[in-house]
Design goal:
Distance between the termini: 72 Å
Protein name: Heme haloperoxidase family profile domain-containing protein
Bound molecules: protoporphyrin IX containing FE, 2-acetamido-2-deoxy-beta-D-glucopyranose
CATH class: Mainly Alpha
Organism: Mycena sanguinolenta
Largest sheet: 2 strands, antiparallel
CATH topology: Chloroperoxidase
Order of helices and strands: HHEHHEHEHHEHHEE
CATH superfamily: Chloroperoxidase-like
Cofactor: heme b
Structural class: mainly alpha
Strand content: 5-15%
Radius of gyration: 20 Å
Keywords: Heme, Iron, Metal-binding, Oxidoreductase, Peroxidase, Signal
Family: Belongs to the chloroperoxidase family.
Amino acid sequence: MALSILSGFLVALSISQCAALYDSHEWIAPTASDVRSPCPGLNTLANHGYLPRSGMNISVTDILDAAVAGFNIGPDAIIQAAKVGLLSGDAPTTMNLDALKLHNLVEHDASISRNDFALGDNLHFNETVFSTLANANPGVDFYNGTSAGQVMQARLADSLARNVNVTNTHKEFAVRTRESAFYLSIFNDTRTGVTPKNFVQIFFREERLPIAEGWTRPETTITADSMVPVERIIQSAAMWTATQPCEPLVIGPTITI
Ligand code: HEM
Ligand SMILES: *[C@@H]1O[C@H](CO)[C@@H](O)[C@H](O)[C@H]1NC(C)=O
Ligand SMILES: *[C@@H]1O[C@H](CO)[C@@H](O)[C@H](O)[C@H]1NC(C)=O
Ligand SMILES: *[C@@H]1O[C@H](CO)[C@@H](O)[C@H](O)[C@H]1NC(C)=O
Ligand SMILES: *[C@@H]1O[C@H](CO)[C@@H](O)[C@H](O)[C@H]1NC(C)=O
Ligand SMILES: *[C@@H]1O[C@H](CO)[C@@H](O)[C@H](O)[C@H]1NC(C)=O
C-alpha cells in the first residue's frame, strides 16, 4: 500500500518534471553564438523555439510553420517577406536571421524599434527609438490603428529630419503598415477587443510572448485579409506621402506593391 502510493507519487513527479524539461517552447534568451534579426516577430519565434534557437539555416517553410504555431499568423500574410528574405544570403534555400538587416531588402528606414541604417544600428532594439510607440495613445492602456499610424508618422518625420539618405517609397510604407498590423492583431485581447500596451511592449523589449501576463494565442488565424480593416485605419492616421517614387515591385502573380 505504502509502496504503491510512493510509486504513484514518483510517477506524478517525473511526469511534471518531464513537462517542464521538455517544454521546448519556453522563452530562453539567445546565447552569444545565436543570431537574431531586426524583426521582433522572428526573434520571438526563435526565443521560444518555434524557429531554431540558433537563428541559422532557416527555411521559408520553417518560418511559415513557426508563424502559425507561435502567433496563429497564416502563410499568406508573410510568405512574400519570407521568400524575399532568402536573398539576404548565398544559401539556396535557407537564411540566417542576422543577415535580414540587409538595408532595403525587407529592412527599411523609419522603423518603430530600430535605427535607420544610415544613423547607426539597424539590427538591435533601441529604447530611444521605441519610446515613440511606448508613449503612444496617452491616457489609455491600449494601442489601436490610430495610434499605430501616428507612431509611423512620427518615426518617419524623425528619419526625414535626421537621415539625408532616407528611403521612403510605397514599398516601405506597405511593409511598415503590415508590421504595425501584426502587433495590433497578434496581441489583440479577445477579452477586451483591444491591444494592451503591456503585451506589445514585452514583445518588442524582451522578444517574448506575454503568456505569463495573460496573453493567449489568437484563436482565429491572422491573414492578409483579416488585417485589411486595421491597415486602412493605420494608413489613414499615418498621413503618409512618398519621398521618392518606386518602380512597381512585382512579388507574385497577383501582387504588385
Ligand atoms: C512571423 C510573423 C512576423 C511578425 C509578427 C513580424 C513583425 C514585425 C514587426 C512588428 C516589425 C517592425 C519592427 C520595427 O519597425 O522596429 C518587423 C520588422 C521586420 N521584419 Fe518581421 N514579422 C514577421 C515576419 C517576418 C518575415 C517572414 C520576415 C522575412 C524573412 C521578416 C523580416 C523583418 C525585417 C527584416 C524587419 C526589419 C524592418 C525594419 O524595421 O527595418 N519578418 N517585423
Ligand atoms: C548552418 O549551415 C552551415 C552550412 O551548411 C553549417 O556549416 C552550420 O553548421 C549550420 N549551422 C547550424 C547552427 O545549423
Ligand atoms: C548617404 O549615402 C551616400 C552614398 O551612399 C554616402 O556617401 C553618405 O555617407 C551617406 N550619408 C549619410 C549621412 O549616411
Ligand atoms: C539609440 O537610438 C538613439 C536615437 O537614434 C541614438 O542616439 C542612440 O545612440 C542609440 N543607442 C544605441 C545603443 O545604439
Ligand atoms: C484609438 O484610441 C484613441 C484613444 O482612446 C481614440 O481616440 C481613437 O478613436 C481610437 N481609434 C480607433 C480607430 O478606435
Ligand atoms: C480585436 O478584436 C476585436 C473583437 O474581439 C475586433 O472587433 C477588432 O477588430 C480586433 N482588432 C484588431 C486590430 O485585430
